[in-house]
Amino acid sequence: MAHYSQLVMPDHINTVGTLFGGQMVSWMDIAAAKTVFRFLKGSKAWGAVTRAIDKVEFKEPVYAGEWVNFVGEVIATGTTSITVKVDAHVEGNDETSMRLACSATITMVAVIKDKKGNFIKFKHGKQVD
Ligand SMILES: CC(C)(COP(=O)(O)OP(=O)(O)OC[C@H]1O[C@@H](n2cnc3c(N)ncnc32)[C@H](O)[C@@H]1OP(=O)(O)O)[C@@H](O)C(=O)NCCC(=O)NCCS
Description:
By secondary structure, the chain is mostly beta strands. It has 1 helix and 6 strands. The N and C termini lie close together (12 Å). It binds coenzyme A (COA).
């Protein structure tokens, strides 16, 4: 599991005054990357790349000045793939407010560099508990 947070700044806002969806997806991808980075420790993978972003749901609008707190958890593994569920919880000024704004399922593939320097998929040998 990994955590990651972002403050929503004015330049993240779309024309209707809420967080731009593409920005949210970018942050979700980073949260998944951090989750997989941690998961692959101890393996010989060079890193991992995003293969698929599925089931993206924007459940609640997000506004400038709010914090977005991401939680990533590995939910499945294959031979080279790692699938991560990412939830984005938004924290506003209200002491009790914490709302689920976005969720997605992101599949990443472990990679190594071949002799030409190209990234190729790699059997990570890891399993989720
Ligand atoms: C990732 C990459 C190296 C894998 O190449 P490949 O040799 O063609 O391998 P595939 O993508 O067919 O399969 C790799 C794994 O992804 C899985 N996969 C393929 N398509 C998928 C999809 N749509 N959803 C979920 N998983 C998928 C396969 O089942 C396989 O998993 P497994 O080994 O655990 O069984 C190549 O697809 C690539 O470079 N993609 C671009 C990555 C990128 O630029 N990402 C954005 C920047 S990080």
